[in-house]
């Protein structure tokens, strides 16, 4: 876990530097940033939740962080309810990382129907050329995670690499039916909060050009995993106007999402025995798409 602890300390210093640069310092010297999530990047709560800081694992992710800030400002200008970056020049480079600061969103978890409404609106927008959105890379960071996640056995790495190669070979032949639109990239219910003023969409770092099916598949997968009910999924499909599970490409997209979920969680090995057991279970299950999944959400 030394690598995670080292990044956490570095990220804390980077947040302090960014907060000072943007005029949003911590509440006091005794109440610094609070780590609320560690995964692809570190996420901190500042000033009692009034500000959220997101710290990339390296400065190499500056372009992605910059695009996320610009995309959020564009979407807000279009009237889409999204989390808003603080004013000022962002991202801030500090401690070999890229840091962005955002207005905190105070809210509660909502239902899949609300996510469907947001996605329907998002997929209908035309971004300005200067936003320069990339094309979807469904395997973005997967190989990197497999290579760098601590504590995986050689057999587990081999199994993940084999799964990655097989899915990547099949992906180009799978043709979406909804066209190519601007998509969120990681559209799950965990990235939407209900506030007194309406729902808010956040975590926009994956925004890109791609098939809407890629955004819709996560809710269907969560239903398959038992994380959403049948009724919730039916409401989602009704609100969006399309059931991605009726599309022939759904099984492949689902397997890619499972691989991504597994390699993301693999970065958290060592945080608890429960997470370690979940990682092992998921890697084992990937070998057989038909095997019942008894996965826990993280």
TrEMBL record:
Q: Name one Pfam family in it.
A: APH
Which InterPro entries does its entry note? AGP_Transferase, Aminoglycoside_PTrfase, Kinase-like_dom_sf
Ranges for domain Aminoglycoside phosphotransferase come to 43-248
UniProt keyword list? Kinase, Transferase
GO molecular function terms attached to this record = kinase activity
Q: Which SUPFAM superfamilies match?
A: Protein kinase-like (PK-like) (SSF56112)
- The organism's superkingdom is given as Bacteria
Isomerase as a keyword of this entry, yes or no, is no
UniProt-recorded name of the protein: Ser/Thr protein kinase RdoA (MazF antagonist)
Source organism (scientific name)? Nocardiopsis terrae
């Amino acid at each position: 876990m030394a690598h995670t602890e080292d990044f956490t300390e570095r990220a804390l210093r980077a947040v302090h530097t960014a907060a000072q640069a943007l005029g949003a310092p911590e509440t006091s010297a005794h109440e610094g940033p609070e780590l609320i999530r560690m995964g692809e990047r570190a996420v901190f709560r500042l000033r009692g939740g009034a500000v959220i800081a997101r710290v990339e694992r390296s400065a190499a992710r500056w372009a992605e962080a910059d695009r996320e800030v610009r995309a959020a400002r564009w979407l807000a200008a279009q009237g889409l309810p999204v989390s808003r970056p603080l004013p000022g020049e962002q991202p801030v480079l500090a401690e070999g990382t890229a840091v962005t600061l955002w207005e905190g969103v105070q809210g509660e978890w909502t239902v899949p129907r609300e996510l469907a409404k947001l996605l329907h609106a998002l997929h209908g927008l035309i971004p300005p050329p200067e936003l320069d959105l990339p094309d979807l890379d469904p395997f973005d960071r997967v190989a990197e995670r497999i290579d760098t996640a601590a504590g995986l056995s050689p057999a587990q790495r081999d199994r993940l690499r084999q799964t990655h190669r097989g899915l990547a070979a099949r992906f180009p032949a799978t043709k979406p039916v909804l066209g190519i639109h601007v998509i969120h990239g990681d559209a799950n219910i965990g990235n939407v909060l209900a506030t007194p003023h309406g729902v808010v969409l956040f975590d926009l770092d994956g925004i890109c050009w791609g098939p809407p099916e890629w955004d819709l598949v996560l809710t269907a997968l969560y239903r398959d995993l038992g994380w959403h009910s049948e009724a919730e999924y039916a409401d989602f499909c009704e609100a969006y106007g399309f059931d991605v599970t009726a599309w022939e490409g759904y099984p492949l997209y689902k397997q890619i999402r499972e691989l991504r979920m597994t390699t993301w969680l693999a970065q958290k090995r060592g945080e608890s025995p429960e997470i370690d057991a979940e990682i092992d279970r998921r890697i084992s299950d990937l070998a057989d798409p038909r095997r019942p999944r008894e996965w826990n959400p993280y």
